[in-house]
Amino acid sequence: MFERMHEFGITENIITIALDKASEAQASKITQINLVMGELSGFVQDCIQFYFDSLSKDTIAQEAVVHFESVPAQLRCQNCSTIFHPQDALWSCPGCQGQSVEILKGRELYIESMEVE
Amino acid sequence: MKKIEVIKNVLEANEIIASRNQQLLDEHKVFVLNIMAAPGAGKTSLILQTLTRLKSRLNIAVIEGDVASTVDAEKVQNEATAVVQINTRNMPESCSLMAAMIEQALKALPLHDIDLLVIENVGNLICPSEFKLGEHKRVVISSLPEGDDKPTKYPLIFIDADAVIINKMDLLPHVDFDIANFHRSIQGLNPKAEVFELSCKTSEGIERWCSWISEQIETNAKKQ
Asked: What are the tens digits of pLDDT across the range B63-82?
């Protein structure tokens, strides 16, 4: 027995979703899966790719390319409503130096589309 | 070759099970805390302190998540109404509890006899923040020896927390931990979080923490 990281289950989900959609579209091969991943999400791309290569064996997703589109973090200052990308570790607002923020973008993890044959 | 649109959240499978868990727990009027922290921050000590204070008024069950061993379950079993140990080493993932693991564990608990369920997540500040379990409130513990920069280094887990605990306050004279800086970071990331300064060793601050739990249980019961 060995320890696996949480990308394992995520990758299983990715493959399940991809195979379902491919079957709906009556595709015989999945050549590319386009994933959208927020900058703040806690998942490691290389790790997903690593698990993907082994978990997709003997499925129609075998050898598919996993393409990652990274979404930059977008924060909104709760004080002055400025929308900004975090510049420092405290996520302070470049407009008013306020430190209360709401995350607008950067936490997503979804399959945007895929290419099939 | 053709392109098909998918637009499907990869975390949805876990979230569906998490809401199923919460529904089951609500039906049985069980209030659930998910306790998250780095290894050694004092998750088990906090649970023990909580059990000692509240067990005369509440029936409390504990789910212990660890990569291996039953060490923590053994520590709490005399104080709790029921304990389930999950060893994530035998699970698809090791680094965090997932909703499906909780769903299994709930089958082993006498839910109709339980008022409060405390879930001790795997010691880790990264992975558990991504996975809802079905809890009502999320609690993150930071302890003084870890340093005051943890919210800055691991923002996600603090952003989603309903309560943030600063544990091992008795060590304050011996370590370089800037309490004001820690509070500033939490205020910035998550101004709604309730912050507790306490020591599981001396019991300082435990009273306020336990009152908070009682208030949360009451508030949640009114919502049902």
From this structure: 999 888 888 888 999 999 99
